[in-house]
Amino acid sequence: DAKTTQPPSMDCAEGRAANLPCNHSTISGNEYVYWYRQIHSQGPQYIIHGLKNNETNEMASLIITEDRKSSTLILPHATLRDTAVYYCIVSNAGGTSYGKLTFGQGTILTVHP
Amino acid sequence: DSGVTQTPKHLITATGQRVTLRCSPRSGDLSVYWYQQSLDQGLQFLIQYYNGEERAKGNILERFSAQQFPDLHSELNLSSLELGDSALYFCASSSRRGNEQYFGPGTRLTVT
Fold first, then answer.
1. What is the 3-state secondary structure of B22-33?
2. Do A103 and B4 count as a contact with CB atoms less than 8 A apart?
């Protein structure tokens, strides 16, 4: 699985958009970009994933660059409950890695009032 | 609530002992994954089962074993426990190979 690079921490004001970047310059053609988050010591929570097109769901939007070497997770209106560690993961979904997730250090997002 | 359940929530045991952690996946999910989260190692993939068969192995110690039963629930067995095995153990499930994974609340294991 391709390695990802994320900033260790970011701050965001409540109500503003949170834009979390991720670099995955060695991503291969059949690898997806997944985003998960972990609030305190709870189980990680799936947010969104994509292959090459931008994706949006009720939680967030995922913007993947045309060359697929980086992506941005956007939380449109951050709340205090969005304070968490956000993990960007590249995974060969359905391929030889059979869907395992390789977590890095992630980005600690702190949303402040 | 992800729909994945794990028992027990907390477990305190002594070195050298053996414990069993249990996971019930979301209804209909065939894949079960086990992860370990310790302070110094972060979240690490241990093992995956798909419809009762082992499909992938990660950094799982030989002292650890797992299985998935016909009703799709899974158990992670940890034996000859050491202080370093103290960690959060998460189970996740997905509906098919490679799909998004839904995590349980975890079991916090403390080895004294």
1. EEECCCCCCEEE
2. no
